[in-house]
Amino acid sequence: MADVTARDLASMLGISTAAVSMALNGKPGVSSETRAKVLALAAEHGYITPKSRRGELPTKNIVSFVIYIGVGVAEQTTFSSFVMRGAEAAAKEMGYRILVHYFYADQPWDEQIQRILSDACGVLMLGTDITSTQRDAFLQFYTLGNVPLVIIDNFLFSAYVDCVGNDNTYGVKSAVSYLIKCGHKKIGYLRSRQRIVNFDDRELGIHLSLAEHKEAGLAPLQIIDVDISPDKARDDIFAWLRAGNTPAEAFFCENDMLAAAFIRVLKESGYRVPEDVSVMGFDDVQICEMIDPPITTMHAFKERLGRISVELLHTRIEAGDTIQTSQESGLMKVALSLQLKERKSVGCRKLRE
Fold this sequence. Notes:
By secondary structure, the protein is of the alpha/beta class. The protein folds into three domains: 42 residues; 140 residues, Response regulator (Rossmann fold); 146 residues, 3-Layer(aba) Sandwich (Rossmann fold). The chain is 42% helix and 17% strand. The chain is built from 14 helices and twelve strands. The strands form three sheets. The protein has a six-stranded parallel β-sheet, with helices on both faces. The chain is elongated. The chain starts with 5 loop residues before the first helix and ends with a helix.
């Protein structure tokens, strides 16, 4: 049988794919008799085991790591580089080679998809920029792809493919609750005009937190809409201040890059951070520690996102799954929690007053 898969071996032996995987990987959980049968059948049909991959690297050991470029959010942060670092480390351990592709939403899709799938045994896609309106067009992957796919940093497709990402809603709910617990009753929201799924999830987290603390006597949420580009966001914030607006006591910013831009504008405009205005970010990228004051933020486990994505993709590859057949064994939606990273950009009013 050409290109025999772990799923094929399982079917021929009348056992589960999981049992075949444990036998091939030398893991406990199967009897020695079953392990011997699996290895014998694998050898008979020319199946390349994971251990063989690590030694001789077969032809199809390539994983395509795709960075989707759409509304421009992914280009404004170093988030993707950390995810890729985790993915590359895990891929190397498992005998895969990662090829990085950029997928541009404003260019013809068919050629890009074919290039991504060419010679790949699986695809990882950083889907930060994929929006709800692009979902139907994106489903071309289902007709063209005969390999498994894992979407990273976007749960829009969790009903169709495996997805790994941050728990944006409850991460932001925790962030805003932290600001309220610090004594801030006037909460602001630096909101990107470019809307992606993650930002909508974060906005929901703000409203959940405000609803939970509705008895705290909070002022109405103050929203400043800005461009996702830090330079353009600076212009937007300056214009908002020049219009005679006064910022709230504490702001949640959609990501760290916007938080950094906001802090710079506030300081240039005569506001002290955090004495006058507290500022909080999201993601925990390098800029958080490069600005004065360092940014209090929600830490995303970025490298772990990449590692878990590769591990999940590896499981699908070993089982012989495609995008279509992955649904038969149950899709995975892995949401990583976030961790509060306290620095100096948020102050507590109840300690000062």
